[in-house]
């Protein structure tokens, strides 16, 4: 796992215990971007339960298996639209780098989020060709 004092995998510059750690423990994300960052970190740490819990019920799969050979190594947020603490929807565009033993790649996506009952959820994403 990861210590609260370790650098957060989402590369916010904050320690895990002050960044994605509280969200993984159940605290609500204040913004769509923070939820997206916590979801990236969940991929990096292998937390499929968190990913499912933060996935909107209308698009959530029944199960999720993560590829343990794929390591998520870097996240760059390209831009956001809405998604603030007083919004009910927002989008976050990002690039996420990954590697395995034999390959490397980057995922570029614009994700859509909604806030219901004070909690942000991931709805879906559009992957950019690249």
UniProtKB/TrEMBL annotation:
Q: Which residues form a coiled coil?
A: none
Extract the Gene3D superfamilies matched here: 3.10.450.50
The YchJ-like middle NTF2-like domain covers which part of the protein?
31-125
Which family, according to the similarity comment? Answer: Belongs to the UPF0225 family.
Protein name (record): UPF0225 protein GCM10009769_23560
